[in-house]
Amino acid sequence: MSDSPRWYLRSWVTLPVPAALAVLDALLANDLGSFVQMSTSLLAAAALLLRRRRPVLVLLLTMPGMQLSYIWLAPMLALYTVATCVRRRWVVALCALLVALVQFVPWPVFDYSIGWDRTTVLSALYSLLTAAAPVALGLLVQTRQELAVRLDELTRGQAREQELLAQSVLSMERARLAREMHDVVSHQVSLISIQAGVLQVRADDPEATVEGALTIRQLSVKTLEELRQMVGVLRAAGGGGRELSPQPTLADLPRLVAAGGVDARLDSAPDVTAPARWPEPVERAAYRTVQEALTNVRKHAPGSEVVVRLRAQGGALVVQVRNGPPEPGAEPLLLPGGGHGLIGLRERAQQLGGTLDCRPTWNGGFVVQAVLPARAAAADRAVADRAPADRAADRAARADRVTRVDAVPSAPLPAPLAAHSAEADRLHR
Known about the structure:
Layout: H1 11-14, H2 16-29, H3 35-47, H4 55-68, H5 73-85, H6 89-104, H7 118-201, H8 206-235, H9 253-258, E1 263-268, H10 280-300, E2 305-313, E3 316-323, H11 340-351, E4 355-360, E5 366-373, H12 374-385, H13 390-400, H14 421-428
Parallel strand pairs: 1-2
Antiparallel strand pairs: 2-3, 3-5, 4-5
C-alpha cells in the first residue's frame, strides 16, 4: 500500500479550495459596492493561501475582514490552522480569545456600550462558540497526527526489536551448530589420525592393515553422517529449532570411553547414569565434555591414564575427566587447534547455569570438571515444550524440503581390503 496521501489531502486541494470558499463567502455576505468590506474580505481570503507557513500572521490578516464586514469562514479556517500547526497552547488560546473579542465587539469599537441583557449574553455565547469550534477541531486533528506519528515510531521500534531478536536467535543457533561440529569433527578426526598412525606402523601385517583401514572407514562414515545432519539443519529455511538427532546421552559414555583411543576408565554409580535421571541437555553436555576432554588427551597427552568420574551433587551432575602426565617418549598428535573446544564447553555449562573448571595438576596432568545443574535445564526444556502445536507441523514440512547430501563415493580399496568391502558399504549406507 502506498504511503502517499489521498488526492483530497494534497496541497493543490487543501490550499486553493478554502481560499475559493472564502471568496464565495465574501461575495455572498458583503455589499458588493462597499470598497472597505470587499477589500478586507478578499484580503482575508487571499491570506489563506499562506496559512500553512504563517498561521498566526494569516489569522491577524483575517481580523479586519471579520471586524469590518460580515465574513466568518476565513477567520474560522485561519483559527483552525493555528490550532492544528502551532504547538504552544498559550498562543492558540490568545488567538481564540482575539477571534471571540472581534466577533463580540462591533465596529466602531468606541461607540459600543455593553448592556447587561439577554441579547448581550447570547452574543457572548455565540462569540465563544465561534472561536471554540475551530480550536477544538484543530486540537483534535493535531492529537490524531501526534498519535499517528507515535504509532509509526512504535511499529518501527517493534520491527527493529524483532529483527534484533531474529539475529540473536540466529547467532545462538550458529554457535550451537559450531560447537556440535567442533566436537564431532575434532573427536572423529583425532581417532582417524590415531588409526592412521597405527596403520603406518603395522603396514607389514596384512590383517592389521585390513582392520585399521576398516576402522578408519567406519569413523569416516560416522563423521560424514553427523556432518550431513548438521548441513541439513543449516539448509532448513527458518530454523524452527530443529534438533540434531540422534543426540548422545549418558548411556553412550561407556562406548565413547572404550573407543576413545586412550587408556581410560569410567567411574560412576549406577544411579547416576540411570535412564531419565537427568534432563536431555544435561546428558548431552556431559557427553560432549567427556568427548572433548578425551580428544585433548589424545592430542596433548598421548599414553596417559584417564579417569572419567560422574557423580550427583546437590541436584547437579558433576563430570570430571582427569588425566596423568603423557607417556615418556610419546609424540603428541600434530593436529591444528584454536582453543574453541574448551570455550564451547564453558558456553554449554553456562547455558545450563553451571560452571566449567579446567586446570593442570601437580604431576603434569590435567583435569576438566563441569558442574551441570538439572533444575535450570529442566526449566528451559519446559519452556521449549510450551511452543504452539502448529510449529511441529511447520518443522515437519520444512524437514521434507531439506536437500540431502548425496553419499560421497568411496575410493577403490586396495586388494588386501577387498574382502571387507561389502561390510564397509553396509556401514556407509
